[in-house]
């Protein structure tokens, strides 16, 4: 491609709204494509200079006789992706880490389109500011046709295309489309997160609150998130206390299912839109860079001119409104997408199609004493290689790109890969006439049901305590009117478990004795070589079952391994996860603490005394008031995290409300929910209720003793039993005949005799 030309070809133009009277010409990164529209043209080209693969998106206004617009041209840089940098060998450790938070495939296309749409509207507004007094929404000044043209040129129109659904579908789609037949996109991947409350941005559109220092909200400026982390989240390591009632597996399951529900990737841009400023090495506050400023007297970072790098979450196409929303790259359903993927291309890559066994692909280089590992990613460079260059072990490939971030998480992914293949082999033995597709889909369906049962029967009651029944009452069947989409606020609320992560990782032997010294958490990120080279997944799973989670209290919130040392080995400066969470809530335009208390029907403290009553801690309330000035401004993550636990739970009332509401919507708005009549037969449901996470571990590892109640704190040998005492899943209810399958298709009916059971439901 040649350089972008300084002049544009003549185009037919139609006037913008009378207030502007401008015509637009815009250029896109799409090579070789040119469109001519009544007032809009798309033209190809590279950005000039030494920007390499960087492309340029421009808006040109020409209005003879209208002073503000006689001649104006605004361009933004649309940087090449981190993947392209890796391919060109122009990479840094930071970029390797960023790669795993980048949108890919269909997600990347959706995010690029949203970036172009948002950028065009922002550039238009910038120029219209000189002609229009006061605050205004640029989309209000454009006709539907003009908005449609911008949408088409940017690619956002692809989000509005009609989805054709198979009315005889018996299985979920990989993307989550067609779950709701009335609105097929509800809960699908690559769609905007839903908002339960209107967004609150500094400019009412997209600029995060706290962007403009000293700008006041409810009479007070927002505090630096690193300062909040230092003064409220930080605690001396000697005060660390473990949870005497919850196992480490309780924490790990929360992270595992969170990666089944939401993923808001970073925007693809690695440099600012208005110049070649790299977000990872510069502290300039220019979109998409929203760096975390270092406060005075920081306990670790002495250079207050430095910052913690932060890139804004990728936007979503918003159907003509200028208000920024964020994309959920994965399905909203609890469907095992972290195992199978949320895009068809990835799902196909993860499968083994060399036979008719319906298997997932496994590692061809290593095994865990004969048991499978996940396949390696085909990346030549990855954070996992950096973690130990001598080991030369790359990252694994899974249904979710975050599978390699923590060792225990990688073990959970490996466990469920093995369980799928175990189910597939047994189903094939029961039904040799099934082809590979049928076996794969049935095993996937069963695995999804297992995840749902473990979550709602075993995990959520221990998380929500006495509030569980009120928030998630007994299942009444599928409700097409329930919106199952993940809410924007849930992506922050479900980060509560960051406060349950201990500072070290253990490995335990067959006798549940320590294997070597504890590993500092900072040395476990992307360290998958330890799994392959140091004993497989069993030692880590034993630790998850026999060790306790960290106890989250108001006096000890997040360990310094996450607050100061996160990704230290591949970042120029260790991340602060607590500060990142608060910065992310501002990035997403989430309202403050009191707004969410009101949403949940809880009291809204107005001052120090009322806040002290809610938190049951006057000293903590005083710290909040000194930092924020008013409870209204408290960032949702830290405010909700600071509340005392509900009875029998591990979150406060606000967090319980947000999490419980989301999980009820996920269940009731899922047509393929395991209890929904017709999804499984009554006999199959009877079999499914016997499953447990302990049984899955027994069936897929060499571990012979497991706890009956895996999410409760257990001290080996107390609470542990032989695997022979743990009920097995009886798959005979899935034994089928060709006649029965024909009946399922409406041809005829002949009931297959299956063993009787009583499931007590």
UniProtKB/TrEMBL annotation:
<feature type="binding site" description="axial binding residue">
    <location>
        <position position="498"/>
    </location>
    <ligand>
        <name>heme b</name>
    </ligand>
</feature>
<protein>
    <submittedName>
        <fullName>Eosinophil peroxidase</fullName>
    </submittedName>
</protein>
<keyword id="KW-0349">Heme</keyword>
<dbReference type="Pfam" id="PF03098">
    <property type="entry name" value="An_peroxidase"/>
</dbReference>
<dbReference type="GO" id="GO:0006979">
    <property type="term" value="P:response to oxidative stress"/>
</dbReference>
<dbReference type="InterPro" id="IPR019791">
    <property type="entry name" value="Haem_peroxidase_animal"/>
</dbReference>
<keyword id="KW-0560">Oxidoreductase</keyword>
<comment type="similarity">
    <text>Belongs to the peroxidase family. XPO subfamily.</text>
</comment>
<keyword id="KW-0479">Metal-binding</keyword>
<keyword id="KW-1015">Disulfide bond</keyword>
<dbReference type="GO" id="GO:0020037">
    <property type="term" value="F:heme binding"/>
</dbReference>
<dbReference type="GO" id="GO:0005615">
    <property type="term" value="C:extracellular space"/>
</dbReference>
<dbReference type="GO" id="GO:0004601">
    <property type="term" value="F:peroxidase activity"/>
</dbReference>
<dbReference type="GO" id="GO:0042742">
    <property type="term" value="P:defense response to bacterium"/>
</dbReference>
<keyword id="KW-0408">Iron</keyword>
<dbReference type="InterPro" id="IPR010255">
    <property type="entry name" value="Haem_peroxidase_sf"/>
</dbReference>
<dbReference type="GO" id="GO:0046872">
    <property type="term" value="F:metal ion binding"/>
</dbReference>
<dbReference type="InterPro" id="IPR037120">
    <property type="entry name" value="Haem_peroxidase_sf_animal"/>
</dbReference>
<keyword id="KW-0732">Signal</keyword>
